[in-house]
Design a protein that fits this description.
alpha/beta, binds nicotinamide-adenine-dinucleotide, 326 residues, Rossmann fold
Length: 326
């Protein structure tokens, strides 16, 4: 099997290269994301490996299908960026890594919340400059606060356990509640009305696109802190910014952003950022943004690599994989 590995970062290559070599998969690594203009890089390959911001649309699929690509291997859980139905119709299998470390993502969500709340990022900068003043660093106790968890799958549940460890009251919403889980499920409206902190852990679908919008922001508790480590487009970013400017939203912890594809994962420090909403959000004292890094632990990377390779081998040898998206 010959594989074109797109959007390669040094940390990907370090982990993937030995595993792919061991499996005998000949791999060509490209820094670029897969796109209509760069599909040629997949010529003579049986499979492509892509990540969260590779836009695998119909035109890309048409071209790689012509080149003989038989598998699109997502090295992530979410698959909203791949038109999998179209790929399947063209005879291309789509595989993903449904679980690699829910702990990595849930722990990052809590790290963001603690950083924002206790202003660790500001304290760190201050003390490096021997500024030991505490003015402006007041946070609040998490203990006793109500957290609303939207999406109680693998990551949502780990996050719930972490929150319980902090003595928080957890209420949750899921379109498909897990029976017998002991989770205190409530209607979505109740989550918005009662939660001091809301954390999103559901997938991006047509139904969840902009589920947090101007209308819902009007119904949340004043001062609510929003955490999004799922997919950016669950939140209407302009509405979020407005909610922050109106002092309705008390803070936002964002590992994902709906227009992140043009910015995240790259050093943009010397450039002028054209996205005013992103710039304004980053400039807010009560917003913390990380660059879609919640997954980035050693354990998660190792699991992503081994599952991706297993997916490829299963498709190659048996024609099926337990991790197919269809
Ligand atoms: P999962 O499939 O285990 O859980 C998702 C949950 O969302 C399920 O319980 C499902 O029933 C629920 N759900 C589906 N539709 C819903 C809706 N309309 N409203 C409410 N709930 C709904 O997935 P997971 O492993 O817990 O991952 C959750 C999301 O986290 C993924 O979809 C992915 O987008 C994101 N993610 C982000 C990172 C990161 O690095 N930031 C890493 C991995 C995953």
């Amino acid at each position: 099997m010959r594989l074109a590995f797109f959007d390669t970062k040094p940390y990907d290559r370090e982990v993937f290269e030995p595993v792919l070599k061991d499996a005998g998969i000949e791999t060509v690594y490209y820094d670029t994301r897969i796109c209509e203009d760069d599909c040629i890089l997949a010529k003579d390959c049986d499979a492509v490996c892509v990540f969260v911001n590779d836009d695998v649309n119909r035109k890309v699929i048409d071209t790689i299908a012509e080149y003989g690509v038989k598998v699109i291997a997502l090295r992530c859980a979410g698959f909203n960026n791949v038109d999998y139905k179209y790929a399947n119709a063209k005879g291309i299998k789509v595989v993903r890594v449904p679980a690699y470390s829910p702990y990595a993502v849930a722990e990052h969500a809590m790290a963001l919340l603690q950083t924002l709340n206790r202003k660790i990022h500001k304290a760190y900068i201050r003390t490096r400059d021997f500024n030991f003043s505490l003015n402006g660093l007041t946070g609040f106790d998490l203990h006793g606060k109500t957290v609303g968890v939207i999406g109680t799958g693998k990551i949502g549940r780990v996050f719930i356990d972490i929150c319980k460890g902090f003595g928080m009251k957890v209420i949750a919403y899921d379109k498909f509640p897990a029976e017998g889980s002991g989770i205190d499920y409530r209607p979505l409206e109740e989550i918005y009305k009662e939660a001091d902190i809301i954390s999103f852990h559901c997938p991006l679908t047509d139904e969840t696109l902009h589920m947090f919008n101007r209308g819902t922001i009007n119904r949340v508790k004043e001062g609510v802190v929003i955490i999004n480590t799922s997919r950016g487009a669950l939140i209407d970013a302009e509405a979020l910014l407005l909610g922050i400017r109106e002092r309705k939203i008390g803070g936002a912890c964002l590992d994902v952003y709906e227009e992140e594809a043009g910015y995240f994962y790259e050093d943009q420090s010397g450039k002028i950022i054209d996205d005013d909403t992103l710039s304004r959000l980053i400039s807010m004292p009560n917003v913390i943004v990380t660059s879609h890094q919640a997954f980035l632990t050693r354990e998660a990377l190792a699991n992503i690599a081994s599952t991706t390779v297993k997916n490829l081998i299963d498709i190659d040898s048996k024609g099926i994989s337990e991790n197919e998206v269809k």
